[in-house]
Amino acid sequence: MDPSATGIQEPFDLIRLSLSERVFVKLRGDRQLTGILHAYDGHMNLIMSDVEETIMIVDPESAANGHGVVNIAKRKMEMLFVRGDGVILVSPPART
Amino acid sequence: MDDSPRPPSDQSPPPPPPPAQFLKGIVGKRVIVRLTSGVDYRGSACVLGVFWMMLIDAWYRSTIEHVNGIVTNRYGDAFIRGNNVLYISAAEPM
């Protein structure tokens, strides 16, 4: 995608183009979300629906041994408000 | 570019200070972005949001995520919230 061709002037415009689409969101605390983006604001507060959350949990015992086994927990939520300060990265679906 | 101080002029606005100049200069260039968490992102800086000379957020393209030097993810487009950024390093000549 070419920024000049799509009228993108600021980074938020990328998020605007992803409204109503399935996006990937990386959050603090080793969490990530995929869901349909409905709304956002300047803080990157997000409203998402049909969300699947993936939580990476490093097992403390194996971490002490130096193995670092990572357990993955998943859960689904129908509708979600994400507070903006937890957001690290937002990636829209690949476009052709 | 001429780095010597220029006499004040009423016509042209003062040049941006070096950090803001850097942020302007990396647009379209390949960069390495390190987050405070230690994760690295390599990609092309596409659009940067700068407010009061602070990087607020930025959009990178063809981004590869590295943790401890190992590739962990790839994103066609990635929007990174600026508060997570530790530094941005230019990966090609400016």
Automatic annotation (TrEMBL), chain A:
InterPro entries: Lsm3, LSM_dom_sf, Sm, Sm-like_LSM3, Sm_dom_euk/arc. Its main location: nucleus. It comes from the Eukaryota. Binds specifically to the 3'-terminal U-tract of U6 snRNA. Residues 10-96 form the Sm domain. The gene is LSM3. Belongs to the snRNP Sm proteins family. Keywords: mRNA processing, mRNA splicing, Nucleus, Ribonucleoprotein, RNA-binding, Spliceosome. LSm subunits form a heteromer with a doughnut shape. Pfam families: LSM (PF01423). SUPFAM superfamilies: Sm-like ribonucleoproteins. The keyword RNA-binding applies. This is LSM complex subunit LSM3. Transmembrane segments: none annotated.
UniProtKB/TrEMBL annotation, chain B:
GO terms for biological process: maturation of SSU-rRNA; mRNA splicing, via spliceosome. Component of the heptameric LSM1-LSM7 complex, which consists of LSM1, LSM2, LSM3, LSM4, LSM5, LSM6 and LSM7. Component of the heptameric LSM2-LSM8 complex, which consists of LSM2, LSM3, LSM4, LSM5, LSM6, LSM7 and LSM8. The LSm subunits form a seven-membered ring structure with a doughnut shape. It is found in: Nucleus. The keyword Ribonucleoprotein applies. Residues 1-23 are annotated as: Disordered. Residues 1-20 have a biased composition (Pro residues). GO terms for cellular component: nucleolus; P-body; sno(s)RNA-containing ribonucleoprotein complex; spliceosomal complex; U4/U6 x U5 tri-snRNP complex; U6 snRNP. One of its GO terms (molecular function) is RNA binding. Keywords: mRNA processing, mRNA splicing, Nucleus, Ribonucleoprotein, RNA-binding, Spliceosome. This is LSM domain-containing protein. It comes from the Eukaryota. Belongs to the snRNP Sm proteins family. SmF/LSm6 subfamily.
